[in-house]
Amino acid sequence: AEEATTADEASKQEQETSAETADGAADSAGEQTAVESAPEASAPVEVENPLWTACKATPWEFDCWMALVPTLERAGDTAALREGYEGLLKEFPLCYGYWEKFARLELKESGKEAQIKIFDRGVAAVPCVELWTLYCTAMVDSIPTEDEHAIAAATATARSVYERAVAAVGSYWSAGSIWDAYVKFEEERSEGGAASVKVASLVHRASSIACDFAARFHTKLEGLIDGASEEVLAALVNELPEDAREAVTGTEEERRAALKEGLSKAREKAVELAKRKAVFEEKVTRSYFHAKPLDAEQRDNWHAYIDAVAAMGDESVTAQVFDRSLIPCSLYPDFWVRRAAHHEARGDLAAARRVLDEGIAGPFKRRPDLKIQAALLDEQVGDIDAARARYAELLASSPEAVESVLRAANFE
């Protein structure tokens, strides 16, 4: 139920809702244009393809982009395709599959450095396990095979990207693949000693996450303990809670058994949390973004999921579920308002304003919903000038919105 796992699957945005119809319309429009008048080579993109005119006029229409982009991909005009990807991703930055396509285009046309820049932009726009995995793979592939200094520098850079990846999405339900890739990366560079300690520590981190994939990493960790050196054993003992370290005594066999038992006990809380999360995770059928409406049952499941983790009192888990919900549910203002209200309830008004501003800069740039909420919050924190500016912008951009007019009038 998590995000698609291949480049082809990542194009689900093209395959759902009216994308198929729009694609067909794009083919017809393209063929008709080609027959009626062949444009000059120097003509601007929007003249060459009439679908550009529609996208420029109504950039918020997802189906319009879904009609345009496939025609650009088939045409083979790199400059036009770049412009198409930029336009689509400016309006719909959560479409991770198109970041992947854009990166693939840049690799082909401009090389690794350009590809990596697109990946970096992509992961900043959308928290996505698949996109981070591809980014990390690109970094590993860019490590040279000669010049030890260059190899060491590139390896350190790749490792830093892996660390960014697991910090960003490592506790997502589908994050097992990024941990697999990171462990493999370290194993391939392990020659004993400190490198082996690094592998064991990494496997331990993955085994401690409150997700179902952690179980197989725990099994792997127990296998590592069976053949671990004293250095690795000592490092893993230090990973135990302080009161559990004293139990790791006796013969070598007894110490290894005690270490396994201690690590198992240490992850009991995470195992229990994973079971509670699974109830909601198993109901998720679309965790990626699409402009197609999300079923009410899916939205209700996300709300119930947030309720459940918030009741547990673990703010890091609650924040993660909130952030994940804002991908498939990004077009629904109640999720943004709820996220902001959660920050507000915890006394973090600055974070609440940031959430609303993020929504306004994204899917609600042309809708009044979040702008009204942001203006109300500005009033609450005493930033009258900011509130007045928001109401003025609301009246200018949505003069027909009755609530905007009433709120602005009441404010004055």
UniProtKB/TrEMBL annotation:
Xref: Gene3D superfamilies: Tetratricopeptide repeat domain
Subcellular location: Nucleus
Region called Disordered, residue ranges: 1-45
Pfam families found in the cross-reference section: HAT_PRP39_C, HAT_PRP39_N
Gene Ontology terms, MF aspect: pre-mRNA 5'-splice site binding
Gene Ontology biological process terms in this record: mRNA 5'-splice site recognition
Coiled-coil zones: 256-283
A Gene Ontology term for the protein's cellular component: U2-type prespliceosome
SMART domains found in the cross-reference section: HAT
The keyword Coiled coil appears for this protein: yes
PANTHER family: PRE-MRNA PROCESSING PROTEIN PRP39-RELATED, PRE-MRNA-PROCESSING FACTOR 39
Protein name: Pre-mRNA-processing factor 39
The species this protein was found in: Cryptomonas curvata
